[in-house]
Amino acid sequence: MKKALITGIFGQDGFYLSDLLLKQGYKIIGVAPSKPEITDASNSWIGDIEFVRGDVSSFDSVSAIIKAVKPDEIYNLAARSFVMDSWAGPSASALCNAVGPVNIFDSVNKIKPDARIFQASTCEIFGDALDNPQTEDTIFRPETPYGISKLYAHLMALNYRKNFNLFISCGILFNHESPLRPENFVTRKITSSAARIRFGLQERLELGNLNAKRDWGFAGDYVRAMYLSLQNDCPEDFVIASGEARSVREFCSLAFRYAGFEIVWEGRDLDEKGIDVKTGKTLIEVNPAFFRPSEVNFYRGLPLKAEKLLHWKRLVSFEELVFKMTESDLQDLSKK
Q: Does the annotation count 222 as an active-site position?
């Protein structure tokens, strides 16, 4: 039985990856500050996982875990991944996103050099990209503390792969979402707000840049690429993306339609509003407080390498993703 060590196991990717690996017959060890209580069926999967206390930002903690577990595969999903937070606490982002992965690489090199490592990189390392779409060869130009910290880890992964012959595959993950996304992420903020407005629990939604376009996919699809990258003959870097770019405005229109509203957009820039056709009420407004410093307006990835070498394809379309998230929020509120 293969053993997989997963950091960041309580994020959305950790949930979907654990589910996938359990079905593949893996023994899973999750790294977490503490083991949570099982409160309902939605997190009953926790009972199938062994947990160890750990902190990726501590080399001693990481090396002790690697020595005790001796994993066959390591999936490093631990990150401070909310981009706005990286501006508020850049040093905390650097500790988790940059130092943490290097602690893993160094510990594996010294203790279990035959372990295979998946490092979760991000499209944010491309920043204001020169290429459209972005590929594995696109020049890195990160614009945020989050992107910069993740680029350090990405480059160190390449360094350990080259100089120590470690099996480290990096997935350059474009935006991937699910009903498990926290509500501070824009996609879940949109779907949960649409549901609350539908049930009369909220009057309107305030957002930042409606023109920003992102390449959005389903997290359940993207963890398959993580798994497949470690089954590949050689370690590689892979862009994992849908190949499509959709605006925040499009995401809103679709989510609100699934929630029972038809939105028409009026005004421009900071004065733009999303208005319900049936009632004439303003349901969506722009609030400049939600604009990011160094906003990148466009990301779109080209996953041809993953499709060719890993035989990976996304299964959930953009429309299906938005429906999954909106329907989940509607169902949660209908039970209350």
A: no
